[in-house]
Structure to design on (500 residues):
């Protein structure tokens, strides 16, 4: 298969599960205008910190069983054995979730003093109650975890996406109800999330009853854990790297700064959704394409195009950031005016996820040769770099220091994985073209972010319009690509000409 046909296949690859993931993650952006227009910085800081702990605890509640469950469930042909696998995993998560949830509720008052600074406690927010509701969210999310995996394992994308969409719908609707109509304040955020998690679990019950049985296997449980537990350090490291900066900002420079940082990170994570869409299609694609003779040429070209797309998103969002944050929606700006100072970190956060996209491209050899043992030390190295950079940079650079720490972590992960990948499965990436791309994007970024250009929407647009021509002048585009771009309009106008 030719390079362009393979790339077309990747673009057309069914990413329905990726859509489901993106729909779920889009909750951050759907609710950001509401939160930043309703909450002061300090209260939004508390929200961000609590959801950080929820993200970390989610990994502990589910033990990283997704990889193990897929491995055992999909390879098993007998329905009775599949029922045994599901039942064993489900009862284990149910039993442990009951224990952990009860422990969190009983220890809520003590945890409040350990997890939050005195500044947070002085706000008068009922943090122990929020911890109890967070425990409920974790409980119902954990019970819905395996049913969602069942839908993926049995290749039922439509129910999967519908249920993910319903979860978002319940969450957004609950937030609007409890914040705008009932005026419940910060408690409304967590009650809305709790209701959404509970309702999603209720919709999952028919699926659970259809697959669960009165069976349990200890030997099978040992096999599941022996496969799953090695993934927990790696998964935890990535989650900690992505979330721990908010509590650290609160501890090191204050709760108000944590609220500012939380808003900036949520907007900057738009790039993570873009990369996630690629990730869901990328893994099955490179595993199947690796058997082709020209596989390495295809992977090299895809890396160039992925960086082209990511850097394009980075540049557009960075240059038009002021216009986006001030955009009015029913009288509210996209980002509340009180949080505009935190938007300075967005370009750095966007750039961090560009390096994450590079990291994903370097995974090929790891998966083909089953060398996943390299991933935990690489991700842990990124986490250690992130923690060290946070402690060093935040006291001096404020929230910008936390953003740079995030970027440093992803650079460490990408560089380390590249060094491993080039030995396992060397690919001749188009570094000459990539350097031209980086040079043009860097020049456009610094010109576009200058005060003179930022003061005029038309000057910003002029910079953006000139980028393709600058890439053309540097020789970034190849002749075959230019020819395909020339032919592109005819593919759309051709049918109209025939009909006329």
């Amino acid at each position: 298969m030719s390079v362009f046909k393979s790339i077309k296949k990747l673009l057309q690859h069914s990413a329905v599960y990726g859509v489901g993931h993106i729909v779920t993650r889009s909750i951050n952006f759907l609710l950001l205008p509401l939160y930043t227009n309703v909450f002061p910085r300090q209260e939004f800081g508390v929200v961000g910190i609590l959801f950080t702990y929820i993200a970390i605890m989610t990994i502990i509640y589910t033990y990283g069983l997704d990889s193990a469950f897929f491995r055992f469930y999909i390879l098993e042909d007998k329905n009775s054995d599949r029922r045994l696998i599901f039942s064993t995993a489900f009862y284990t998560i149910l039993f442990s979730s009951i224990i952990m949830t009860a422990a969190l509720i009983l220890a809520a008052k003590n945890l409040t003093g350990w997890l939050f600074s005195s500044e947070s406690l002085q706000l008068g927010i009922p943090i122990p109650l929020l911890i109890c509701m967070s425990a409920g969210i974790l409980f119902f999310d954990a019970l819905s975890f395996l049913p969602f995996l069942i839908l993926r394992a049995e290749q039922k994308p439509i129910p999967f996406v519908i249920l993910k969409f319903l979860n978002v719908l319940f969450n957004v609707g609950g937030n609007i109800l409890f914040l705008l109509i009932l005026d419940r304040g910060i408690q409304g955020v967590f009650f809305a999330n709790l209701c959404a998690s509970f309702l999603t679990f209720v919709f999952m019950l028919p699926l659970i009853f259809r697959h669960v049985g009165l069976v349990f296997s200890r030997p099978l449980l040992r096999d599941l854990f022996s496969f799953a537990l090695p993934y927990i350090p790696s998964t935890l490291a990535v989650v900690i790297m992505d979330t721990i900066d908010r509590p650290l900002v609160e501890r090191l420079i204050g709760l108000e700064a944590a609220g500012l940082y939380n808003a900036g990170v949520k907007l900057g994570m738009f790039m993570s959704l873009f990369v996630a869409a690629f990730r869901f299609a990328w893994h099955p694609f490179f595993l199947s394409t690796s058997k082709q003779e020209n596989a390495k040429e295809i992977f090299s070209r895809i890396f160039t195009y992925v960086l082209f797309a990511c850097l394009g998103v980075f540049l557009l969002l960075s240059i038009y950031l002021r216009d986006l944050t001030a955009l009015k929606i029913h009288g509210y700006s996209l980002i509340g005016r009180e949080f505009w100072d935190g938007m300075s970190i967005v370009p750095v956060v966007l750039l961090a996820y560009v390096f994450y996209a590079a990291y994903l491209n370097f995974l090929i050899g790891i998966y083909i040769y089953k060398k996943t043992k390299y991933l935990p030390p690489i991700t842990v190295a990124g986490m250690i770099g992130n923690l060290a950079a946070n402690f060093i940079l935040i006291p001096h650079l404020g929230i910008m220091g936390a953003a740079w720490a995030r970027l440093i972590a992803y650079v460490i992960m990408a560089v380390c994985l590249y060094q491993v990948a080039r030995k396992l499965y060397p690919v001749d990436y188009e570094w000459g073209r990539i350097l031209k791309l980086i040079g043009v994007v860097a020049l456009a970024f610094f010109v576009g972010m200058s005060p003179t250009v930022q003061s005029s929407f038309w000057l910003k647009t002029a910079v953006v319009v000139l980028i393709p021509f600058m890439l053309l002048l540097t020789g970034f585009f190849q002749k075959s690509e230019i020819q395909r771009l020339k032919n592109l309009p005819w593919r759309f106008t051709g049918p109209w000409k025939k009909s006329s």
